[in-house]
Design goal:
about 280 residues; alpha/beta; Rossmann fold; 7 strands; transmembrane helix
């Protein structure tokens, strides 16, 4: 489910923000971040996917979530008089990164099973929003993307699933999934989920301007992989803003470093405002 927070004031919003939460996040938690944009005269469409869809990268379910966010964003954009209102995509951990990945794959690969089932109106909304994002917008990754180490996947389950019984089930299914992929797919030279996801991340052209805020002490997101990703994307001419923190917990950078976080949001909004004007 997605909610909308409307920009404060009488002026048109500086940007439309699509915000994807992390694994296990609640709407009230995501809303705290959404309000950072609302206070700066942006309208925010925010929500997340359910835990099982994220943990197992359920393509059909992720597609539904992306379409819901895109439909809301496109409706807002079409009601505005400006033809250049930018779109910002802000996502957290792999709960958000998987949705950003799915968003892009739906745009670039209409031949996959889920994308081929899109209605004409859904596809039109998707392209409309994707164009605003790529041409005028900004992509912000908080504690993301996280390389799919098995250990970090298990830690993510332990961190986000409070119910012991459900957590045990998820850990067992996740472990079995990893075992099958490593013992069946690899010997057959089939690409694993981990390899597919990271290849898509490395090759992403979702947006011309991107920002990463991450930490050297994050136990879930491998900061060295983010370092490598930033350098690779810079080599392709993508404009990168990087805020690497010496000490901060996973998806808690706003709480641990509010000044730096607010400064980043301000820089991003200023950048898209100047680009669209």
């Amino acid at each position: 489910m997605f909610k909308v927070l409307t920009a404060e004031g009488d002026l048109p919003p500086k940007a439309i923000v699509i915000m994807y939460g992390w694994l296990g996040s609640q709407m009230k938690h995501i809303e705290k971040y959404a309000r950072l944009y609302v206070q700066r005269n942006c309208t925010v469409v925010y929500g997340n996917a359910h835990s099982a869809a994220i943990m197992f990268r359920a393509e059909s379910e992720l597609t539904k979530v992306v379409l819901e966010s895109v439909t809301e964003a496109a409706k807002i954009l079409r009601n505005l008089e400006s033809q250049e209102t930018p779109v910002i995509m802000h996502y957290f951990s792999n709960g958000g990164a998987f949705l950003a990945e799915r968003f892009e794959q739906m745009v670039v690969n209409m031949n996959d099973e889920a994308s081929s089932k899109l209605s004409d109106s859904s596809y039109a909304d998707l392209i409309y929003v994707a164009t605003r994002l790529k041409e005028f917008g900004f992509e912000i990754a908080d504690s993301a993307p996280a390389y799919l180490h098995t250990s970090s996947g298990l830690k993510a389950i332990d961190t986000s699933v409070s119910n012991v019984f459900i957590r045990t089930i998820f850990r067992s299914i996740f472990g079995l999934s990893v075992f099958v992929k490593d013992t069946v797919l690899k010997p057959c030279n089939e690409e694993t989920t981990r390899e597919t996801f990271w290849k898509n991340v490395v090759n992403s052209t979702l947006c011309k301007k991107q920002a990463f805020i991450y930490s050297a002490t994050d136990v879930l997101t491998d900061h060295e992989k983010i370092d490598e990703l930033i350098q690779e994307r810079k080599s392709r001419g993508i404009l990168i803003t990087a805020k690497k923190l010496d000490e901060s917990e996973h998806v808690l950078h706003l709480r641990n470093h509010p000044e730096i976080y607010n400064e980043l949001i301000g820089e991003v909004i200023e950048s898209v405002s100047s680009s669209s004007s």
